Amino acid sequence: MRGRTEEAVLESGPLPVSMEIKQIDQDGKYDVATLPNDEDIGEEVSKNAFLSKRTEAIMMTAICTALFVSLIFILNFCGFTSAAVLNVWLTDRLGFGMVILGGAIIQGVSFALVCWAPPFGLFVFAMYLNGLGTGLQDAQANGVITRFSNSDAKMQYIHAAYDKSTAAY
Questions:
Q1: CA neighbor of 141 nearest in space, from 93, 106, 91
Q2: What's the number of domains the chain is made of?
Q3: Could you point out which of 26, 116, 130, 140 has its C-alpha 20 to 30 Å from the C-alpha of 80?
Q4: Which residues, in sequence order, are bridge partners of residue 163?
Q5: Residue 41 domain flag
Q6: How many C-beta atoms surround the C-beta of residue 76 within 10 A?
Q7: What number of other Cβ atoms are within 10 A of residue 77's Cβ?
Q8: Is 106 found in the same domain as 149?
Q9: Does 100 share its domain with 154?
């Protein structure tokens, strides 16, 4: 059955159900693969069907888990973005000291919520608070550093410290 020309396939009529055209090689010939009939397979059909359903279930579970877990990082980003939006308004209303202290308190509350392994919803909310507190402190610390002499080198040191602290995670 292998290597039949296009004309030979067309002349023979439609292929039986147990046959399938796999590919055309460079000479224009069809490679026809024979699929086994149900009576030839027996119980292997149900095993293969089960394996494919099991594989599909595993893949869906992995995708859903990845999307679910990514909420931790998404909410942390949302907290940091909220801090970026609120920082100027809060600094005008409350002043530098209260905003940086508030950021530290918010971040401390988030760590207190995370440390006892809460349910996932509360954990994700704590990550939002973590992003909010970190964002408020980051903006205020950058503002302080820019007022020092030789601020460009000091800004490099403070951001290098952020890099070193991520190694702890």
A1: 91
A2: 2
A3: 116
A4: none
A5: no
A6: 21
A7: 14
A8: yes
A9: yes
Number of H helices, E strands in the chain: 6, 2
* pLDDT tens-digit readout, 24-71: 555 555 444 544 444 545 544 444 555 577 777 788 888 888 888 899
**158 CB neighbour count, 10 Å cutoff:** 14
Chain-centroid distance, C-alpha 71: 9
Tokens of 22: 């796999």
Encoding tokens for residue 96? 């530098």
The CA dihedral of 146, 152, 155, 156, to the nearest 10 degrees, is 180
User: What would the 3-class secondary structure string for 26-70 be?
Assistant: CCCCEEEEECCCHHHHCCHHHHHHHHHHHHHHHHHHHHHHHHHHH
**Residue-number span of the structural domain to which 14 is assigned:** 6-35
pLDDT at residue number 16? 47
What six digits make up the tokens of 145?
A: 């550093």
Entry pTM: 0.60
End-to-end alpha-carbon separation of the chain, Å? 61
Q: What angle do CA 81, 133, 140 make, to 5 degrees?
A: 85
